[in-house]
Amino acid sequence: MSIPVPEPFGRRLCEARLSLGDPLAASIPAHITLAPPTVVPCAELPGVVDHLLRVATAERRFWIRLRGTGTFRPVSPVVFVALAEGIEGCERVQANVMTGPLQGDPTFPYHPHVTIAHHLPDEVMDRAFKELSGFRADFEAWGFALYKLGRDGIWRRDRDFTFGTGHD
């Protein structure tokens, strides 16, 4: 589950990630993660969808402003575009998503961001940090999306959950 980065910003970030040689760039759309990749047995998916519908219905839209870059290095080999606004909204939605059937122990504390380089050589990570340091995008978080991993290794949007109204 994640908040998709809308066009043209999502495409720009994907192109930047591709230009860095990140092998995941073509298979993962630009997004702000709400829940890490989670294996859900088919029989349990309806309960998860109902849970996400309840979360979305209770939420409201909020603004996200992306500004500059950050990194989790040395703890984790990630360079990201940072949120200057919308952190509180993302944290609230994430906390609610990660209850009920999705409750679990996270590997890392939640920190909303948009990954632009992951597990790349240090010089490439440094380049990503520098080249996208001036990146700016403002958009409204209208809701979030459930993604499914295809057999081809590509994450695709499966369904949307609109804040205040449930899912489309």
From TrEMBL:
The keyword Lipid metabolism does not apply. It comes from the Bacteria. GO terms for molecular function: ligase activity. Keywords: Ligase. It holds the Pfam family 2_5_RNA_ligase2. InterPro entries: 2H_phosphoesterase_YjcG-like, Cyclic_Pdiesterase. SUPFAM superfamilies: LigT-like (SSF55144). This is 2'-5' RNA ligase family protein.
